[in-house]
Specification:
Elements: E1 9-13, H1 31-36, E2 42-46, H2 53-59, E3 66-68, H3 97-105, E4 111-113, H4 120-142, H5 146-155, H6 157-163, H7 165-176, H8 183-199, H9 204-216, H10 224-238, H11 245-257, H12 261-264
Parallel strand pairs: 1-2, 1-3, 3-4
Helix pairs in contact: 4-8, 5-7, 6-7, 6-9, 7-8, 9-10, 10-11
This protein binds iron/sulfur cluster.
Length: about 280
């Protein structure tokens, strides 16, 4: 499996995990986070209003993502009502104060609001980024090398092509021109751009393009009938008749029959655990 077997750590507004820390003594437990996702992630509940700064900084040192409570004056990422000094609501709203400071300090960290996670495309995108962040932390712990960076980029090729084809090329150039540059200098630049590229959601069109590329690897080895079957399901996915998991399952079936080490290592095939079923809904 391309993703790490360890559970990535995700910080979360404590009230979303059921802690009764809200101004009214209540909570806002998110079933998705507090029940379903706990099997896959170690959640670190944080309430900036009751936490002690130093303890919080230590707990958040190795997180791979943050889920904020929406519309909160402290934790909200977006659409927080901000009032002027005379109490009148200001145009456009903004980020909660704590969320604003935290995101500025951690520009590459995947962050999302709980409400937006109900959207299957945004949920899949956020969790894909969390696993990418986690894979990068692991690479960094092992020590960055030029070879390690090139291999990492090769594994992310098709995922990047689905999210942001232009950035895929730009990142390839960055690494292709690294010469004898220090990997500890180029690595963080590469990673920042990778995380920014993955933030853009893949679309049915870009996924279809990647599926076509991947199916091209099997065109010499599978029968005309199988090629036709593959084209049919890619077309059905493109038209919105079947979800992404359908053409991918067929591709993986051909991959098992005709192993190809370059394709097998692609993160795109399984950017998150299969049992999360994130690609059944997109
Ligand atoms: S500050 Fe954040 S975590 Fe604490 S109650 Fe408000 S929204 Fe929830």
């Amino acid at each position: 499996m391309p993703h790490s077997p360890e559970k990535p750590k995700i910080a979360i507004s404590a009230c979303l995990m059921g802690a009764e820390v809200r101004y009214n003594g209540g909570h806002k437990a998110s079933r998705l986070c507090s029940r379903l996702l706990t099997k896959y992630f170690d959640f670190v509940p944080v309430c900036p209003e009751v936490a002690i700064g130093q303890k919080m900084a230590a707990e958040l040192a190795d997180i791979c993502g943050y889920i904020f409570m929406q519309k909160s004056l402290s934790c909200g990422l977006d659409r927080v009502k901000v009032y002027s000094i005379n109490g009148a609501p200001m145009d456009g709203g903004g980020r909660g104060l704590y969320a604003q400071t935290f995101c500025t300090q951690h520009p590459d960290l995947p962050v999302e609001e709980d409400g937006r996670l109900n959207n299957p495309v945004l949920r899949e995108n956020f969790l894909t980024r969390v696993f990418a962040y986690s894979a990068w932390q692991q690479l960094r712990q092992e020590g960055l090398t030029r070879r390690g960076l090139t291999e990492f980029h090769a594994r992310y090729k098709y995922l990047l092509m689905a999210h942001n084809p232009v950035q895929y090329k730009a990142l390839g150039h960055l690494l292709g021109n690294m010469g004898r540059a220090d990997p500890d200098e180029i690595g963080p630049r590469y990673f920042s751009e990778l995380m920014a590229a993955l933030k853009k959601c893949a679309t049915r069109r870009t996924h279809t393009n990647v599926l076509q590329h991947l199916s091209g690897y099997f065109k010499q080895v599978i029968s005309a009938e199988d090629k036709q079957a593959m084209q049919l399901v890619i077309g059905q996915y493109h038209q919105g008749i079947v979800p992404l998991v359908v053409p991918l399952t067929l591709l993986k079936h051909y991959l098992r029959q005709h192993p190809d080490p370059y394709i097998a290592q692609q993160v795109y095939l399984q950017p998150h655990p299969e049992s999360l079923s994130l690609r059944n809904a997109i």
